[in-house]
Amino acid sequence: MSNPQKKRNFQIEAFKHKVVVDPKYADKTWKILEHAIHEIYNHNASGLSFEELYRNAYNMVLHKFGEKLYSGLVSTMTAHLKEISKSIEDSQGGLFLEELNRKWNDHNKALQMIRDILMYMDRTFIPSTRKTPVHELGLILWRDNVIYSPKIRSRLLDTLLELVLQERTGEVINRGLMRNIIKMLMDLGSSVYQEEFEQPFLDVSAEFYKGESQKFIESCDCGEYLKKAEKRLNEEIDRVTHYLDAKSEVKITNVVEKEMIANHMLALVHMENSGLVNMLLDDKYEDLGRMYSLFRRVPNGLSTVRDVMTSHIRDIGKQLVSDPEKLKDPVEFVQRLLDEKDKYDGIIGSAFGNDKTFQNALNSSFEYFINLNPRSPEFISLFVDDKLRKGLKGVSEEDVEVILDKVMMLFRYLQEKDVFEKYYKQHLAKRLLSGKTVSDDAERSLIVKLKTECGYQFTSKLEGMFTDMKTSQDTMQGFYSSHPELSEGPTLTVQVLTTGSWPTQSAVTCNLPAEMSSLCEKFRSYYLGTHSGRRLSWQTNMGTADVKATFGKGQKHELNVSTYQMCVLMLFNTCDRLSYKEIEQASEIPAVDLKRCLQSLALVKGKNVLRKEPMSKDVGEDDVFFVNDKFASKFYKVKIGTVVAQKESEPEKQETRQRVEEDRKPQIEAAIVRIMKSRRVLDHNNIIAEVTKQLQSRFLANPTEIKKRIESLIERDFLERDSVDRKLYRYLA
């Protein structure tokens, strides 16, 4: 029976082994490696055993000869690079860069082989001793021994800059060679590239473009100059793409922009006969687009263009609104505004990339000069009136919307929108009552746009006018249904207008012909019988009539006339001749209206159904009138004295302005009360500012009027002044 095996207690704690190295080992091994490096640089590497060379380098490091290996590498490479440098220095003319490029490529290939051989040293010895890795070391030695060589350094820079200059002056250069040399500098480090090429390149470029821009400014017009500047800019960008560092693009383009654009901005935009204003006047979209794209690259470039454009538009606008000739025709005046707006919208859209800041500048310019003309609200309403009476006949719905949108654009510029509302209501009333609107849809579309822009309050009365027109149609159907006996004889059409919805008209009466007077009385009885608590007042000054007339030789016509003209014509059924005073007495038409009426009946060529004695251009109180038996027209229906929308006379204008001012008073007071109810206590200046802000969508409130309204509210105990600070107001609940 055997004994169980005992556990052994032996364990190796440390092991010391002595290796005896031949003292000549390091020298022998280095000689082998040194020879290999020489062969590599001399292009004889094909016979070398890289595996054996790697093992030799490995053993040197392993046997603590890393320092000898590293220092030997430095001295051997340095010696070779000095020879290379001498070879490059000796190269002549255009061969200089080619030799430099060839030697650089050779050095890189050699460096790659050497790094492979010394890989173990690169991975162990170099990191532990914090020395420069082999590849980086090779670049540094190339830089110090070749690039920084006194005979190469300045020559290299001069050669590169000369090639750039040649290319700028139109010569063809070897871009591939340039790219290789520039890449060499970049591979040696960004600081080498910047110091040895980029910074001198930028300095020389600045001088070049400074001189060239001055030459161009003196010899080119603005459009040509901008083309040349754009071409130079694109050339520099192209140069960077082909052979410079991508980071140089911003720097060189900044140089071109500064020297060719920024330093000449004002000279360019104000250049005589070709600057920005001339480009705008001549619609030079391409030049304007080029100016925009170039100027946007430099500080304050676009603001310079924008300011000159704004000033020009304002000047044009001021000329337009201050020229009495151009103010004679309101429709043409507004059309000119629209044409100018279209023109500059087109320029901003096509040339300025729809830049919002330019659009805002355009809008502020139009707002500025449109409001210089106090009659702009009236003129815009007259333009609408012209379009909705006749100007939109045969126009497609889409085009109608375009025109209405343009009108709304002008409307937004108005500071006195309430004045426009007054005129628009008057003109709309005339269109509706005369049946002269070309499209109810267009009328309603504009009202919807106004409602969207200004709210329900702005358009509620306008919508009420349409309601009245529809209700009146139904009323007339009911009237004739209840009076079938009226189917024979004159027909009556009455439009019942709600007071408040329509423009205020003073009730003017005149003596209607007997047959019409009895018809009107029947309608009054019918209407008041079906609507209790209402009162009718006839607006004879707003009516029209169709009168059948027979003249001297039996020729018959149907005359479309106003109610006043009808009253005058019917008097001649019983009299051959009537004096002005007899007509006035019989008709009781107000004198001003009667004179206009007789002028249109007797003095308008082709429409003169009456004649007068003595013949003159004006109607006098001693004139005598009689029927023109020789009246003739190629048309059976003849329209006489149709009054188209026209500018108000001075007294009418003052009356409208007075009504507007009266209407503003309660609006200003309401705004003051709203503000004070919310704020309770507020000083005078802040009330003025807040009231102006609240009301600016309708009109620009006058501070003097606001002050008067404050005084009125104090008198009526809505507000009180502070006992200490008289400019402070308190709201009294």
Structure report:
By secondary structure, this protein is mainly α. It contains 29 helices and 9 strands. The protein has helices spanning 25-41, 50-62, 66-90, 95-117, 119-129, 134-147, 150-168, 175-187, 190-219, 222-243, 248-261, 265-269, 276-281, 285-295, 301-322, 330-350, 356-370, 376-391, 397-413, 417-434, 440-454, 456-482, 514-530, 563-571, 580-587, 591-602, 650-679, 684-695, 703-715; strands at 544-550, 556-562, 577-579, 610-613, 624-627, 637-639, 681-683, 719-721, 728-731. The strands form 3 sheets. Strands 1-2-6 form a 3-stranded mixed sheet. Strands 3-5-4 form a 3-stranded antiparallel sheet. A hairpin with a 6-residue loop joins strand 8 (719-721) and strand 9 (728-731). Helix 27 crosses helix 28 and helix 27 (650-679) packs across helix 29.
SSE layout and pairing:
Blueprint: H1 25-41, H2 50-62, H3 66-90, H4 95-117, H5 119-129, H6 134-147, H7 150-168, H8 175-187, H9 190-219, H10 222-243, H11 248-261, H12 265-269, H13 276-281, H14 285-295, H15 301-322, H16 330-350, H17 356-370, H18 376-391, H19 397-413, H20 417-434, H21 440-454, H22 456-482, H23 514-530, E1 544-550, E2 556-562, H24 563-571, E3 577-579, H25 580-587, H26 591-602, E4 610-613, E5 624-627, E6 637-639, H27 650-679, E7 681-683, H28 684-695, H29 703-715, E8 719-721, E9 728-731
Parallel strand pairs: 2-6
Antiparallel strand pairs: 1-2, 3-5, 4-5, 7-9, 8-9
Helix pairs in contact: 1-2, 1-3, 2-3, 2-5, 3-4, 3-6, 4-6, 4-8, 7-9, 8-9, 9-11, 10-11, 10-14, 14-15, 15-17, 16-17, 16-18, 18-20, 19-21, 20-22, 21-22, 27-28, 27-29
